Amino acid sequence: MIRSIPMINTARLTLCAMRPEDFNRFAEIWRDPKVVRHIGGTPKTRGEAWDSFLRNAGHWQMTGFGQWGVMLQSNRTLIGQAGFFFGNRELGEDFDGFPEAGWVLDPELQGQGYGCEAAQAAHDWFDRVIPGPLVALIDADHATSQRLAEKLGYKLLREAEYLDTAVHLFRRDGPPARV
User: Quick one: which of 74, 63, 31, 34 has its CA closest to 49?
Assistant: First the structure.
């Protein structure tokens, strides 16, 4: 089963397949304690980052969707990732049966709207190509990601605990109404 990964351009970003030459930057992002503070808390080793990097590529092949590398158009530098995956987290049928959304951005570039721009572009693609419910797991203390989820149309499903961490589970049944 071979599936191509679509490329999405926004005003400032390109969402695209990650290439082998993007791995060093990918590993650097996931090694940053600020990145993982609300995502498990432990920076990834180079080996763990490699496993995650390969899992991202394989997810596209198996499901037809996945996580894109988020690149600055100005210099084609990897600044994060955004997209969808099946997490198989054993959090219940109301969560595990649906694609999960996720986004990660280099902390040095946060606060400039890049995360929102990338996540919105990914969700616009999903709504066109694979419409249906989405879920998101967000650390209970991560107010910024929770606000982004709400902007994207997610509603709080319930509070839970995952890997000894308080989290909020969100669900999105479709795009938010445009005003």
Answer: 31
Q: What is the DSSP letter of 48?
A: H
Give a three-class secondary structure readout of 163-176: CCEEEEEEEECCCC
Kindly tell me if the per-residue pLDDT of 3 is higher than 50.
Answer: yes
Please report, as a single letter, which amino acid is at residue 54. L
**Alpha-carbon separation of residue 97 from 28, 94, 111, 134, 135 (angstroms):** 32, 7, 32, 9, 9
Q: Is the pTM of this model over 0.85?
A: yes
Task: Count the neighbouring beta carbons within 10 Å of the beta carbon of residue 105.
Answer: 21
Amino acid at the residue 64: G
38 pLDDT higher than 90: no
Spatial distance between the Cα atoms of 101 and 103, rounded to a whole number of angstroms: 7
- The mean predicted confidence, pLDDT, of the chain is 93
Question: Do the Cβ atoms of 38 and 163 come closer than 8 Å?
Answer: no
Amino acid identity of residue 15, one-letter, is: L
Q: How far apart are CA 70 and CA 178, in angstroms?
A: 25
Q: Rg (Cα) of the chain, in Å, rounded?
A: 15
| Helix, strand, or coil (residue 63) | helix
